[in-house]
Write a structure and sequence with these properties.
heterodimer; A: 2 helices; elongated; disordered N terminus; B: about 325 residues; alpha/beta; 10 helices; about 35% helix
Chain lengths: ~220, ~325
Amino acid sequence: MKRITIYTAFVASLVLSGNAFSQSINWQSLDKEQRHIININAGAEYGSTVGAGYGYQLKSKLPIVLNLELSFPTGDKLTDDFKTKIGGYIRLYQINNFQFSAKIQGVFRRYENSLASLVNFGSEMTGTVGYYKPKWFFAGEAGFDKAIVTHFKHSTVYKQNFPSVKDGWYEPATGGNFHYGLQTGYSFRRNDIYLKAGKLVSQDFNTTPLLPFYLQIGYNIRL
Amino acid sequence: MKKAKFCIPLLICLISLCGCKKENLITEEGNLVPKTVEQDPTLPSISINGTMLHAEAFGNPDSAMVVVLHGGPGSDYRHLLNCKELASAGYYVIFYDQRGSGLSKRYSKSSYSTQVMLDDLSAVIAHYRKSNNQKVFLLGHSWGAILATAFINKYPTVISGTILAEPGGFTWADIEGYVSRSRDIKITSELISDFLYADQFITGKKDQHAILDYKYALLSAADGDKDNPIGDEGALPFWRPGAVVNQALFELGDKEKPDWTTHLHKYNTRVLFVYSERNRAYGLAYAQKVSSAYANVQLFKVNGAGHDMLSFPTGWSNFYPVALNYLNSLK
């Protein structure tokens, strides 16, 4: 039963969730023959972060880019916290220069401090509506990031404080944050430089994360 | 397109595999954080002022009382248990987790006020006090020292003496300034990542205390970090922090801009005001500024310690003789 619950939650979240932080694409400057998009980025997303990504454009009627992303928060221990995403980015509609696109990704992320390490499977989705020209674009985005199932493992320090703490997988979904914001970019030759920023709010709409906004500057090269 | 159709089911399978083991409920008390006195009757508790508080007392009940007030708001008294030593020096030492904190009963955010915290303190004193002649001292750390001052400001004749350890301030402007300085941390540091990154894993809804308190507990990992300006030697022991009371009292402060100094001039008893050597957000000048709200102050720097000077061996060994002399002089 619990397996079914997790399965259902994951599928539902793929439909309902969103992603603010992944690479941005100027659909108007993306040539059909450009199959590979390599991205680097830096910014603020639950901390100061650096990241990289790879996108592969499929040969399809609608523009679809499959992508893989990896990001880390900065700090002394670079690999104790990280986030990976795998998914797809599709441009669904185009009316002249106005375009609507959606991104759906599965997320695997890890967090560790001196008290606990958390491993989470989740999902993100963003809907983006914007005005795209070959040299520049401006768009609005909104979506949801769902932490579906999380494994908790506690350190000796935490167990000294609370010996009966239960390590293991936890349900129901342990977290979820909505986001909304703006993105803009400039494209030249095979390159894009973009900036995106917005706000975060928890799924109950009453609270915000400690860092209640996101900001990312990124660079794509299309090959 | 075929690849896209393949990737999502693959991820779903991975998630499903993770679901094979028995899962725990994140909302269940006792899984990630200990149960409170309301849920665990084996814990030492008192029922006062319409609530249940986790509380303990040590020493001769007829001796002069020392009521220990923990910080936060929302922390607990576990890291202040060194103060038990005062019991063997002839004092009746009272510890309690404030309403919504530690292992005491939880409430919704809207139920909190400074006055209810003061009423609880009055009720705790009344609960343990054996006679009207029994002297009552307050020993407050951080927010606990602010609470002690708010109490003295409101009831200047009740308290026989007070020890205040690094209160953030007695006016909201001072508190805001101190909190800002104490969080002056490099944005790219590991400490900031430890603070912020967990927000995407856990987001409790209001009144989901088990989740909110656990999330708040994870933040305490930053206590002993080398980048933390408050200068502690390590992480503090704790039972269970109270996330909602912490948020409630900070929001109330921001809204009401309290000034807890308005009647302190009526309190002429000498106050022992201590600050730590290593807290970069405090220091002598700020200790002089904050303590000047009292008419009669004994200022003391605790060497070799940070903000939680009462919780680690060096700080405690430097603090204790001074505190004991102070209490004995007023006993």
